[in-house]
Amino acid sequence: MNTRRKFLAQATIGSLAAMSPVSSISCTDRAENPDEKTIGKKPLVISTWGFGLQANEGALKVLNSGGKALDAVEQGVRIIEADGSNSSVGYGGLPDREGHVTLDACIMDGGGMCGSVCALEHIVHPVTVARKVMEQTPHVILVGEGALQFALAQGMKKENLLTKESEAAWKEWLEEAKYKPIINIENHDTIGMVALDKNGDMAGACTTSGLAYKMRGRVGDSPIIGAGLYVDNEVGGAAATGLGEAVLRTLGSFLVVELMRQGKSPKEACREAVLRIKSKHANYKDFQVGFIAMNKKGETGGFSIHEGFGYAVGSEHSNELVKAESLLE
Ligand code: SD4
After folding, report:
1. pTM of the full structure
2. Of 150, 184, 274, 323, which has the most beta carbons under 10 Å away?
């Protein structure tokens, strides 16, 4: 198996769900650290996993025409939210134990403004609801029924997000898993994205259906500012994927940004955040967490617990999947 195919296969193993096909998008596997290769490049966008390539394409349409990082990250992750073929984000996401698809998302700009929705049902684009929370309300987070009411009041359509495929997978799980939560490296995949626009402004977004077959009402790290995502124009941005509970306990994305503020490179900062998770979790080998980060200079990096995590790095003329280094082989 060639290196790229091997990486994609590993990434699939580490991410359960059907990754969106990437064959139509040119990508090169680069095992080396891209940190320095992207320095000074503007615009620039990074996002998690193989489907990050598709999300980056959407973001780059905005960024390459001089658009704002905030618009780019929203447009980029919306592509994955609308794609029913992946079962970990938006439409088609795997449901909770009771069969409800509940979505978590947030968005943040480099100036510190942010918005988030937790456990939102029936709306295909939670990231857009999160942006509206940020821009149209005095609040940062809306949850559950209130978030849905707000989305409907904003003119969004109520839809059934449970696809036949996800419903079938849930029913199969009900038989075999007997309502035990599955927390391992195979049942999740979140799109997290950080962008730097031509003006030098940054923004990020993160959106997911969370852990498959989670308890009803469970919220992960992805919509929590500082956990699943953090951005500061003065330093850079970071996003997380993997077992949300571990990221929440360590406020991982905030930690990555603060470590970059202290002078760590994006990859070093991501590695330190993974080590923090290791130090607080005796069972860290049993789950996956991955971080991606970009600093103001345009350096990028990522790091994960297990091998198999990757992220897409997009700039004006390229969009490539990069294999992240990991703690464990
Ligand atoms: C969660 N962090 O809800 C999310 C799931 C995830 O890759 O990232 N999957 O815990």
Report:
1. 0.89
2. 274
